[in-house]
Design a protein that fits this description.
579 residues, mainly alpha, Arc Repressor Mutant, subunit A
Length: 579
């Protein structure tokens, strides 16, 4: 626990020894779990009062110990206070051991006590570097694993997957079945979210194997539950039900982990519902909800109310379905649970009247878009943190070891950017050729198959009339008018916005905004191909010609459809003209 002594002295001074003994005494007393939180906190502060008598080299270790004590008694203010003091002083002293311990503690604080993804990721990244330097294999792997988990929380799924895979060799070297199980469990969760169900099951089975070695029955049951969830996500409800029941068969689940017991009970009930087995339903849903309510599991309560809404919707008891769907929605909004909020909005869009259903659909799309933007921001944020940390490490190595390392790092960075640039150019060339080769005017709408009719609550004559009007609309250029909207086009077709929206979503397989954008961009592409004068227009002028109020909106829509910027497309067309 102690830091290293000064090279010039083989023993501490008398005041220092007195301080060490006093700090150890008060910390030992403070760790007595039979004392009240206040008493333990007061003892920790008494330990701190002696630290001013210590040499600086000894202080970080004791600050860490004091901070850890406050973490145990949930005094987050003092936890972060002492962890930061330890980190700052250890960094000043370049004490890698205490840098590793304090930055890891700071990462845990921002991950578990006051969630801030960027701060948590930053400190775990610092910790993994420091632990690697002191050759602590297990803690290096654990720091990297936590970084991957944070990336998953922020929807950077591919980045999180790559990071977690990096942690596995460290756990293998350390022979840690516990953290190997955690790593494979996290990978299984990410695979499921990516829709890679085969690998999701494979990784959850690996996690189960390591958990069985640990002989931890609760974690074994959780892995079985996770495998069941993957089957449920694939709508394989029989297999899901089998795995849920295997997990439920473990002894004393309720006593050991009431929250998990309630979650598992809800999963079993849901699988039964989807298999058409109404036995003990909805009683099992209510039992699960009651347990969650008794332990104040508010996240679990949202899930239970969502599944109850779905249950009553399936039973055509719309008033009850609405009651639970709105309750789930309100609590999900309060807790800022975006995924759960999306589920409740999806249910409400199916069971509410047309106007409200459209509003909930709009909210669903808006939140979905915001999550995608958040994902992009998170990816850039994590990349920047890694880059900044790498840069600092290279500078430190230049000062303390070999100046040539910085040159090597810059060369590597240049090569990396050169490779990225080359790959980007090659990708752009491939996409350009695809645009040049494709005749967008011959794009056919989605096939009007019989199955699609079943999806619409609209009479057949109305559907056919709207499709006829759409075909005529697509053959003209009215879609180039600025400000065209679902409402204005519905009025032109003598129908309502709901019908038109549903027909476009079903038969063109896109929402109204994407539908109009695709028509406009197709027009722009084909005209740019054949009209040399049009290629001389500015991007702003082309945007106005094709119905956009500004060049940014046009460029965004163009890139979304083609994967290339319009300025690049025009420049390449001009090069072809010059040949």
């Amino acid at each position: 626990m102690l830091g290293s002594c000064s090279n010039n002295n083989s023993t501490h001074s008398e005041p220092t020894n007195e301080a060490i003994d006093s700090i150890a005494f008060y910390l030992d007393k403070a760790n007595d779990v039979h004392l009240s939180t206040k008493e333990r906190g007061d003892l920790a502060m008494k330990a701190y009062s002696w630290t001013h008598k210590l040499e600086d080299s000894l202080k970080p270790s004791y600050f860490i110990s004091i901070g850890t004590l406050f973490y145990k008694i949930n005094d987050h203010k003092n936890d972060i206070r002492f962890s930061k003091r330890a980190y700052d002083l250890a960094s000043k002293l370049n004490d890698q051991k205490d840098i590793a311990r304090s930055s890891f503690n700071l990462g845990l604080f921002y991950l578990k006590s006051d969630y801030k993804s960027d701060s948590a990721y930053y400190y775990f990244n610092k910790a993994q570097y420091a632990y690697r330097k002191i050759k602590d294999t297990l803690k290096t792997g654990l720091s990297i694993l936590n970084m991957g988990i944070i990336q998953r929380y922020e929807n950077d799924l591919l980045g999180g997957q790559t990071t977690i895979i990096r942690s596995i060799p460290y756990f293998e070297v350390a022979k840690s079945d516990r953290f190997l199980a955690s790593a494979y469990n996290s990978l299984g969760n990410i695979d499921a979210e990516l829709g890679d169900f085969k690998n999701a099951i494979k990784n959850h089975q690996k996690a189960l194997k390591y958990r069985r070695r640990l002989n931890d029955k609760i974690f074994e049951a959780k892995s079985l539950n996770n495998i069941g969830v993957v089957h449920k996500d694939q709508k394989k409800y029989k297999e899901a039900h089998d795995y849920f029941n295997q997990a439920f068969a473990y002894d004393s689940l309720y006593i050991k982990d009431a929250g998990f017991y309630a979650l598992l009970l809800n999963n079993i009930a849901y699988a039964k519902l989807k298999r058409g087995d109404d036995k003990d339903l909805p009683e099992q849903f209510f039992k699960s909800l009651k347990i969650k309510d008794s332990i104040n599991d508010r996240v679990g309560i949202v899930t239970s109310k969502t599944t109850l809404a779905e249950y009553y919707a399936d039973k055509n008891k719309i008033d009850s379905a609405k009651m639970y769907a709105y309750a789930a929605k309100d609590l999900a909004e309060k807790l800022k649970l975006k995924d759960d909020l999306l589920e409740s909005l999806l249910i409400l869009s199916r069971i509410e009247n047309k106007d409200k259903a459209l509003e909930f659909t709009r909210q669903y799309i808006q939140i979905k878009d915001s999550l995608q933007k958040k994902e992009r921001v998170a990816k850039n944020q994590f990349a920047r943190i890694r880059f900044d940390t790498d840069q600092i490490e290279q500078e430190n190595m230049q000062i303390t070891k070999h100046k040539k390392l910085l040159v090597y790092a810059l060369i590597a960075l240049f090569l990396a950017f050169a490779s990225i640039y080359y790959l980007k150019q090659r990708t752009y060339k491939r996409r350009l050729q695809a645009v040049l080769d494709k005749n967008y005017t011959e794009e056919s709408p989605a096939p009007e198959v019989q199955d699609k009719k079943k999806e619409l609550d609209i009479d057949e004559l109305t559907v056919q009339q709207i499709l006829k009007d759409l075909k005529e609309f697509e053959s003209g250029t009215q879609y180039l008018q600025e400000g065209i909207s679902l409402a204005s086009l519905s009025k032109k077709f003598n129908t309502n916005s709901s019908y038109l929206s549903k027909v476009i979503n079903t038969y063109r397989e896109k929402n109204f905004s994407t539908y109009i954008n695709d028509l406009r961009i197709t027009y722009a592409i084909e005209r740019l191909k054949r009209d040399g004068k049009f290629r001389l227009y500015s991007i702003k002028a082309i945007a106005e010609e094709t119905g956009y109020s500004n060049s940014q909106s046009f460029s965004t829509a163009f890139y979304k459809k083609t994967g290339i910027q319009p300025s690049y497309f025009i420049a390449e067309l001009k090069k072809l003209d010059a040949r």
